[in-house]
């Protein structure tokens, strides 16, 4: 490991440092701009159905071995596939569904509320994840993080699925702007291919391009999310 004369780490690639600065900047700007919208949406969600406005759920994040192969933790011994963290979303389903077994949501899922359907289609429900970006759990752009039980299932059924964990998960990504929700193993496999394509060529400039392409998806709902 290389160090500067002051003892600071210098082994972090410039593009990684640039990407982190970009993510923090975009997250902060996003929170400031969307704070009134998030407050209004939270109020509407509370009025429509009982339960918390913000939904918290465990997701599988970065595999620490991608950066430090020698890392061994309790989670690694239990092999969750990556660091498990708590993701924040605006609640789009009935509160009772929070206790259901982990499974994919479908387009006509009866658990989704009327307001929730709109929030999911426009990705507004993902806005609280800007705070996950500030915490370092996620980036703006990256593979979508999955629930632990679903991750375990996909890891055993989809080739190279764990390779997605080589980078921080994201709010949006190359797969998300090209494909909709997963409804089958084939859908997952297609997204994995796109995620790995992104990981192979990712740069700060590429992230900016994906962010820009995310806006039409949110505004015009070109892809059902």
What's the topology here?
Layout: H1 14-48, E1 54-60, H2 74-78, E2 84-90, H3 114-122, H4 129-135, E3 139-141, H5 148-157, E4 170-172, H6 185-201, H7 204-220
Parallel strand pairs: 3-4
Antiparallel strand pairs: 1-2
What would you say about this model in short?
Helices cover 44% and strands 9% of the residues. It has helices spanning 14-48, 74-78, 114-122, 129-135, 148-157, 185-201, 204-220, and strands at residues 54-60, 84-90, 139-141, 170-172. Strand 3, helix 5 (148-157) and strand 4 (170-172) form a beta-alpha-beta unit.
Provide structural commentary.
The chain has helices at 14-48, 74-78, 114-122, 129-135, 148-157, 185-201, 204-220; strands at residues 54-60, 84-90, 139-141, 170-172. The chain is globular. It is mainly alpha-helical and 225 residues long. The relative contact order is 0.14. The longest helix has 35 residues, at 14-48. Residues 1-9 have low confidence and may be disordered. It has one domain (14-220). Strands 1-2 form a two-stranded antiparallel sheet. The chain contains seven helices and four strands. Helix 5 links the parallel strand 3 (139-141) and strand 4 (170-172).
């Amino acid at each position: 490991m290389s160090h500067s004369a002051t003892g600071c780490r210098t082994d972090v690639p410039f593009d990684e440092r640039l990407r982190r600065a970009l993510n923090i900047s975009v997250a902060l700007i996003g929170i400031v701009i969307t704070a009134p919208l998030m407050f209004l949406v939270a109020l509407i969600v509370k009025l429509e159905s009982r339960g918390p406005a913000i939904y918290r759920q465990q997701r599988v994040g970065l595999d620490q071995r991608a950066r430090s192969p020698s890392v061994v933790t309790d989670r690694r011994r239990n092999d969750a596939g990556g660091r498990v963290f708590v993701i924040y979303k605006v609640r789009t389903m009935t509160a009772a569904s929070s206790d259901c077994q982990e499974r994919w949501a479908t387009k006509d899922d009866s658990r989704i509320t009327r307001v929730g359907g709109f929030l999911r289609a426009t990705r507004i429900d993902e806005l609280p994840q800007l705070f996950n970006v500030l915490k370092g759990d996620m980036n703006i752009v990256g593979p979508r993080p999955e629930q632990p039980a679903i991750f375990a299932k996909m890891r055993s059924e989809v080739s190279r699925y764990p390779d997605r964990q080589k980078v921080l998960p994201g709010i949006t990504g190359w797969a998300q702007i090209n494909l909709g929700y997963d409804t089958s193993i084939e859908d997952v496999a297609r997204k994995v291919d796109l995620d790995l394509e992104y990981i192979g060529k990712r740069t700060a400039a590429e992230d900016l391009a994906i962010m820009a392409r995310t806006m039409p998806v949110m505004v015009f709902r070109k892809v059902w999310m």
